[in-house]
Amino acid sequence: MKADSTPHPAAAPATAHHALVVVSLISTGLGVLCAFVAPALIHLIDFFTNLFFYQRLSFSSISPADNQLGLFVIIIPVVGGVIVGLIARFGSKAIRGHGIPEAMEQVMENNSRIPARMTYLKPVSAAISIGSGGPFGAEGPIIATGGALGSLLGQVLSTTAAERKTLLAAGAAAGMSAIFGSPISAVLLAIELLLFEFRARSVIPVALAASAAAGLRVSMEGSEPVFTMPHLAAVSFPALALYSLIGILLGVVAVGVTRVVYWVEDQFERLPLHWMWWPAVGGLAVGVVGYFAPRTLGVGYQNITGILAAGMSVRVVAFLCAMKFVSWAISLGSGTSGGTLAPLLTIGSGAGNLLGALCLRLLPASGLDVRMAGLVGMAALFAGASRALLTSVVFAFETTQQAAGLLPLLAGCSLSFLTARLLMQNSIMTEKIARRGLRIPQDYDADIFQQTSVSEVMERDVKTLAAEGFVTELADRIARHDPGLSVQQAWPLIDSQGVLTGIITRSDLLRALDAPVEHALTLREAGSSPLVVAYPDESVHDAVVRMLSHGIGRLPVVNRAAPEKLTGYLSRTSLLATRLRSHHHETQRDPGWLRTMRERPAADPKQ
């Protein structure tokens, strides 16, 4: 018997390794490209900031908070909103929104194909939005731009959908790494929000892209942390408990922030205006808030540094964070080109700072550090709002280089994540997509098919039929509900020597009965041969790939050393049993020693 056990071509190890090397090289080049695109976007934001707020042509770095426009400052964000609306209307509607959710949607629904025009429309529109006072950070647009560049390369070259997804994530990670110098958290962000998997084929290219971008950033700008703050001492246990409490409270705040942002977005949907004008309406709110609180205008990274260094009074922090939230929520809800990371970091660090000050006043002997509380709050709000737990912890460490903060960061972010997940199913990144009916995976499990061998789930008691039997006889037995036939949908065929020669399915039987023939067909003639088989020592995953590539639903199982002898039978029922076993491992509880001891009958004293 000639048995076919060839795997699907895409699964061949040599091909997969070659593809991984090629994608890794492309991703590294993408990281180098993003290392130059990121500062170019920063300079473009600076250009529009100078143009809008100071009426001069310059690329020098300057804050819009220092403007001398008076009441005219209210008009600037409106003008920026009009321009962004026009770009969205006549360029691409895809520039609207947070950036990361839109990239997630392209990954899930469009095989990671982002339109080529997004590589320039997104950064230009974001630079205009931020440069005219929009309360966003530069990281969102560069993450979106990097992802668009990666997707574009994946469309120009011959790639699979999985490879395009990897290139998209590599570009996004490189963009984040180039802005913040945080390669590890950039990789984690890609894993938690874009890749939806943890495999060498995707993690290695993303890591190389982030490393290349971060390495070039260090060579151009140095290795100083983005958010500088005084050295923090190791935490005591009472202080750790308070930081954990802050994490829980920030989880509640994260849910509130998410709900408010989408509530504002819903209100814009009800306006009797074309969506093209919504960014202008949002810009009006930004301008009014900016008039009373100039620090809310623009990127505002210096605000985060000031809060983390405890260089602002409690009143200033409270006012700044409240106004920043109002400005950001309205502007983002209007559908302008913006992002979420920098505003969340500002609001979170401020909330953590305020809660830390309150805890220190109530418990002065706890050893709590207000600066550490701000750091925990910054990361915890992002963890609760985005559900990117590991990204939040590592990002706070990489951008401040405070090793003592790792323990409270881990505790605070974990509890924030848990609290937010208990209170709200979706995150600020996935709520919009979920409203469109798209389900985003939140838990990444190892493939149970790859962990299970065929021998563990195959049916061993297999009903076989004689290969020389006749089709009419089998049909008659089925019609009489012969108890000697199993409920199988197919039967392996064995010849007089006990050798496996083929297989016949119920579909084969029906076709044979309908076909005009001159003689009585045997089961061997009506069945399928040569066979596609599985082996007991291979994974169920490999067997499933073989089923799919050949368009069949069952496989005879034979030993490699004796392929003519039937060992078992793998069917769709076997595959469902594999999933059922995994489900039982997750849901069925063992009684445990304590329960067993309680239920054990007492010994009879007469014995």
CATH structural class of the largest domain: Mainly Alpha
Quickly give the CATH architecture of the largest domain: Orthogonal Bundle
Determine the fraction of residues in helical runs and give it as a percent range.
55-70%
Q: Quick one: how many beta strands?
A: 7
Q: On the 0-100 scale, what is the average pLDDT?
A: 87
For the terminal residues, how far apart are their CA atoms?
A: 66 Å
| Number of discrete helical segments | 25
Shape: elongated
- Give the structural class: mainly alpha
CATH superfamily of the largest domain, called what? Clc chloride channel
**% residues in beta strands:** under 5%
- Rg value: 31 Å
CATH fold category name of the largest domain: Clc chloride channel
Strand order of the largest sheet: 2-3-4
**Oligomeric composition of the shown chains:** single chain
Biggest sheet character: 3 strands, mixed
Poorly predicted parts: 5-11
Provide structural commentary.
This protein has 607 residues and is mainly alpha-helical. The chain folds into three domains: 11-221, Clc chloride channel, CATH 1.10.3080; 237-435, Clc chloride channel (Orthogonal Bundle); 448-587, CBS-domain (Roll). It is 61% helix and 5% strand. It has helices spanning 13-54, 75-90, 100-109, 118-131, 139-156, 161-180, 183-195, 200-221, 237-269, 278-292, 301-308, 314-333, 341-362, 370-386, 389-400, 406-423, 431-435, 448-451, 454-457, 471-479, 506-514, 523-526, 540-550, 572-587, 592-599, and strands at 3-4, 465-466, 490-494, 500-505, 531-532, 554-558, 566-571. Strands 2-3-4 form a three-stranded mixed β-sheet. Strand 6 (554-558) and strand 7 form a beta hairpin. It starts with a strand and ends in an 8-residue tail after the last helix. The model is unreliable at 5-11 (pLDDT under 50).
